[in-house]
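Practice problem: predict the structure.
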Amino acid sequence: MEFFHKKTNFSFMATRRIWYVLSALLMIGSIALFFTRGLNLAVDFTGGAVAEVTFTDAAPIERIRTGLEQAGFHEPSVTNFGSSRDVSIRLPPDSTLSVDQVRERVTTALQGIDPDVVIQPIEFVGPQVGVELRNAAIWALLFTFAGIFVYIIFSFHTWRLSAGATLALLHDPILIIGWFALSQTTFDLAVIAALLATVGYSLNDTIIIFDRIRERFEANRRLEPVMVLDQSVNQTLSRTIMTKLTTLIVVVALLIFGGPALRGFSEALVIGILAGTYSSIYISSAVALDLGLKAEHVFPTVRGREVDSLP
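Answer:
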């Protein structure tokens, strides 16, 4: 199935500098938001208490939140999960309260709303665990980018494509983090999973375009690199749009109907899909072009006079 009935011939590389400027502005804005507003980190990273409770009827979210605040908890997070009767409660760390005091206050506040409420054992996450999870997430992202950089060098025999792909993959998570700093949506481990999924999804599109670039260079090594890249992007454009649209439909459905528990995960994927759509075209391929990509870089055994003797 093809999205376009006719072969496209868009000059993508001719407008690449416009997209460079847009991406640079968005990345600078995202970094500025990260350092000025910061992220609304979940208990996974900050430490605190997590409780799962079940009410006899639909849980009154606002009453629960108000009751917990009156019990002395600052900015408690209260969200539905599973059914309308099931609620997940996340409380920030408070060094002035012991574990027993937290448990007693939570129980008193919830039983004041529903005497028959069922409270699962409260889990406590220490600040040290939160720091370890944050560091593990950072290392996971760094090792992912390092592995991708090395993989593309070995697969395509040139650091130019590898540098372009790595910059494109850095671009997408930075925009996602900027969005979370702006919206103050809770940033938890599910968002980290979405970041890694976005990197993998964007990389898949990038590798497909790179494979087509290699095929076009192999078919005619005399073609100008800018023509090769434009042809490669146009030949994969229909596939890119179809896969992005179908994936976006599913993710938007998660965003609308998934509830608060999946909100951060689905928001990150929506931003990642939109950003990855143009980063795989206007950053990964375009950066390689501006770094001087040529046929002999993709086929290192063919150099000098040999290139002139080939079609």
